[in-house]
Design a protein that fits this description.
Low-confidence stretches: none
Strand order of the largest sheet: 2-1-6-5-7
Radius of gyration: 23 Å
CATH superfamily of the largest domain: SPOUT methyltransferase, trefoil knot domain
Helix content: 25-40%
CATH architecture of the largest domain: 3-Layer(aba) Sandwich
Number of helices: 9
Number of strands: 9
Strand content: 15-25%
Length: 249
Amino acid sequence: MRIDVLTLFPEMFAPLLSTSIIGRAIAKGLLEIKLYNIRDFAKNKHKRVDDYPYGGGQGMILAPQPLFDALYHVLGAYESEKPKVILMSPQGKVLDQDLARQLSKEHGLVIICGHYEGVDQRVIDRFVDMEISIGDYVLTGGELPAMVLIDCVGRLIPGVLGNPESTQDESFSRGLLEYPQYTRPYEYEGYTVPDVLLSGNHQEIQRWRLKESLRNTLQKRPDLLEKAELSPYEMELLEEIKNEMRHTE
């Protein structure tokens, strides 16, 4: 996958692109990320990219000219399938695992990092396919949200993670939070690993993991259970958990 990022601060992306899983994916050629400084496309003498809003108001707006020219340049490099153009914006659709999975199947992504009080609407009307937010709060710029999106999507690209099954059981993969995880030693400062995980009984281990996944979700994110499509067996386990919780109150 190719990802092009339009930003005022390309230097912020250096740690993401050179370390950990995303860095290794780039080194393997599984992921290509290109950074473009929006100021490089400004035609005025001082490389100014913002201006005051028409109609008055607080703050500054990213002007259309630098972004139009930057997007014409980036999109012109795609010979066949057009990439999806995304604006990181607090007004956008909130990023979740389903959206990340959809985007991981795209041929390419072009990410615009918003700044100041926003982006001239004509940029959105002409180029943007989707606005994405990482939460209902406002940041100083779109760079951190863009990095979150790149990491979230990049790890889902085939071959990026060593074990292709590792994304199947993790939190949000099927609308539930993940079950608790343990490693050695068996006992540490009086805390022990659940014995079922050492039993060798894979059926019982799977049941425990599913039940604890449901318990985790019920306790931490009950809103997810309202949207989850649970099987009759999962509903049975959920009722068992609720009964256990009632008896410990």
